[in-house]
């Protein structure tokens, strides 16, 4: 709980593990006590409790991200879509549902910092009903001075920007999975057809307007090798030097009914091992994206550890999700699954408080497997939706290979000498 971090030299590691001379042990013991690695149990428990209470207060005061899925219809036929078997009528949220959503937001999140993120399906469709619904969503956010973010496949982004910019846009998240041939094979139009060029044009136009782009790459064994080419493309296009451009890697993994071909998937550790090899062979990859490797990138960039992570699941805390059927969900991993619904905001407001409480109570103190885990405060218990999918328990663990990730990250980011804070 001291927040200290050190890299040991080989001699120091040997002194700890191979029965070094007493004087070496005593010197290390004194250093470790000064750095906070050695402490009595009572004072450590006090510090742990104080840090936990501070984290819970921060969580309760955090800005809330309110996802709204106005449709589960989509113009893409992505190879890894986890919503493929969702039941939907293909329609777009009606204006009365949108009005009810904003009324619920005003009442239930009064006094909280918040913003709205459009999700899907694909929120930027071109039918008349979609155009009317999008305008109502954008204007509703603008009228309430709420920031707006959009998660889109990017195909209709250029055409939608004049409407979207009627509200204050926080960011546009767009997915590109590689250069044209690779991207189009993974993310074609329904019925077939290229999407790459139009998505790239949407990114170009968004950045040209000085609006934030969050470029997401969904990676698995089929496309990871194409990341250096995509990095060089983004660099040449000037994206990576824009102050409005950032990236994320989304690991393609099994969720709900997707992934008939599970052999294409990486485990979390396998992916980061592959990323380390790729970054060493192609340093330009790091200009596009710097993987976190748990807390290692933060440590390298800030010279200190981040705050302890008592809870890595934002569901029903700093994240909620809503859809055009009037249902309320905990997060984007559950939105659209009727059996995961926590209640409704339309046609009537009904919230299942017991279900909500289970989400809100979940943290490393509530998960039995986390209580004595030495890396609990770097893991935070993982994703609740994934834990439930794996274990059948919302309060089950979604374990992360923290030790291994730290080692990989240290090899990439911390091999220029010993870092101390």
**Shape annotation:** globular
Number of helices, where a helix is a run of at least 4 consecutive DSSP H or I residues: 16
Q: SSE string, helix = H, strand = E?
A: HHHEHEHEHEHHEHEHHHEEEEHHHH
User: What class, by secondary structure content?
Assistant: alpha/beta
Percent helix among the residues? 40-55%
CATH superfamily of the domain at 63-291, by name, is: Aldolase class I
Short description:
Among the domains are: 63-291, Aldolase class I (TIM Barrel), CATH 3.20.20; 362-421, no CATH class.
Provide key terms for this protein.
421 residues; alpha/beta; TIM Barrel; ten-stranded mixed beta sheet; globular
Describe this structure in words.
This protein has helices at about 10-15, 20-35, 40-60, 95-110, 130-145, 155-165, 180-185, 195-210, 225-235, 270-280, 285-290, 295-300, 355-360, 375-380, 385-390, 400-415, and strands at about 65-70, 115-120, 145-150, 170-175, 215-220, 245-250, 320-325, 325-330, 345, 350. Among the domains are: about 65-290, Alpha-Beta Barrel (TIM Barrel), CATH 3.20.20; about 360-420, no CATH class. Helix 4 (about 95-110) runs parallel beside helix 5 (about 130-145). The chain is globular. It has 16 helices and ten strands. The protein has a ten-stranded mixed β-sheet with strand order 6-5-4-3-2-1-7-8-9-10, with helices on one face. It is an alpha/beta fold and about 425 residues long.
Chain-wise SSE layout:
Elements: H1 10-17, H2 22-35, H3 41-61, E1 64-69, H4 95-108, E2 114-118, H5 128-143, E3 147-152, H6 157-164, E4 169-175, H7 180-186, H8 196-208, E5 213-219, H9 227-236, E6 245-251, H10 268-281, H11 285-288, H12 296-302, E7 319-323, E8 327-329, E9 343-344, E10 350-351, H13 353-361, H14 376-379, H15 384-391, H16 402-413
Parallel strand pairs: 1-2, 1-7, 2-3, 3-4, 4-5, 5-6
Antiparallel strand pairs: 7-8, 8-9, 9-10
Helix pairs in contact: 4-5, 10-16
